Amino acid sequence: MNCIIVDDEPLAREVLESFVGRIDGLDLLASCDNAIKAFDILKKEKVDLIFLDIQMPKLNGIDFLKVLDPIPNVIFTTAYREYAIESYELNVVDYLLKPISFQRFLMAVNKAMNGGSKESEEQLTPIDELRSDAPYIFLKADRKMVKVYLKDILYIESLKDYVRIKLPQKDVISLQKISFLEQKLPEDCFIRIHRSFIVPIKKIEAFSNNVIEIGGTELPIGRNYKEKVLEVLNSDTSILG
Question: Collapsing DSSP states into helix, strand and coil, what is residue 140?
Answer without folding.
Answer: strand
